[in-house]
């Protein structure tokens, strides 16, 4: 690809990211203070907005599932799905979880139960009872609804309507081709790039800290910023080389291996851990999740400062994370979902990954909670990035499970970053499916630099702050994308030459 194919989106977004990285490196304390103040402002004045936004997005997904548009194919009418159902489910799951699969599955439930409980007194029977259901809430269908609406919009406009693979292109029915391809459209794509950089870099920051803690448990390597810097730098060499050379088959095999390892750890812990307690916890927590579904989704305890703070620290943080990850995950899910109907797509994206996440959180979270309840180990006293290893070492084969856990995080780190460089390259090169090597390498370096700055300026709290700050502008883009999707869907018409099946639809020329 020639240099002239690189759009102004690349140069402007890259410049903004470089300026931020430089600012964070030169004045880290001021960076943390500024992002912290903005986060506090957003949490105070926009928590209601995030809760309503995610709930409305979920309602829209459910509506589309049962609407007259549900049989529209995300592709040509005679096009079959590109991937088999099992392969598609596996890719959906791996797309949206990544490092969070092993970073939070222990730390979040144990925190809800014994440290900062969402409703009840920490350590009480009620708090333990609520711990897993709130983890399900944060990682379940609310999260996947955000991915689903963005991915569905991408897939519909790209494969069904034939538009370029850009966020701005999905707004064409709403703002017109001139605006979508002009300055306004480029600003939209820049917002998508910055949101993606922040979301993926946050995941890499979490991953680097957890790899460091795992190496500390296994080989007594100290937990420190220089070690985390070295982990990120080494991983950057791997994924930028991979992004430059485009070893797609190798990455696919690596991803499949990683999912196999993750499920092997899950199954091992289920067998050697408190199996009955895990099964009981799963059943009870799913029931609580269903019963309190709407209450959790709209909960803003205005008269309780500590609980309001909990909502900001957990729920609003997660909703912002999913919004910032939406462009990256959405494009990937759209790519692997070509040929599916809207109904198949929504069922697959909302239900299957959510159920798998419920299982992972129950096995890891219940195993940790059981240790604490029986006085075997105080897992709640460990740092977020350490909790999984502290829990695993209490069980037989704990050393080997910890070793494989570190390997899983490393592979997730490399594959997530590699995929992100491709998506960022596509978004910043006019939707090209083959971005130039130097573009992907540039984004790889920026992702790593962002992750390093996040850790350098304050660790987990700094990462959470930057996610919340970056997500708010892109949440407005998601609203515009959804609006544009419905405008285009309303222009679809029944296929009248087949009156026996009025749910088949064909494209109708946009009147933009």
UniProtKB/TrEMBL annotation:
Protein name according to UniProt: Choline/carnitine/betaine transport
Keywords on record: Cell membrane, Membrane, Transmembrane, Transmembrane helix, Transport
A GO cellular-component term linked to this record: plasma membrane
Sample GO molecular function, one term: transmembrane transporter activity
Transmembrane portions of the chain: 48-66, 87-107, 136-157, 188-209, 229-247, 259-279, 316-334, 346-369, 399-425, 437-457, 463-486
NCBIfam families xref list: bcct (TIGR00842)
Tree of life domain: Bacteria
Family: Belongs to the BCCT transporter (TC 2.A.15) family.
Presence of the UniProt keyword Oxidoreductase in the record: no
Source organism (scientific name): Lacicoccus qingdaonensis
Topological category with respect to the lipid bilayer: Multi-pass membrane protein
Compartmental location: Cell membrane
Pfam families: BCCT (PF02028)
InterPro entries documented for this protein: BCCT_CS (IPR018093), BCCT_transptr (IPR000060)
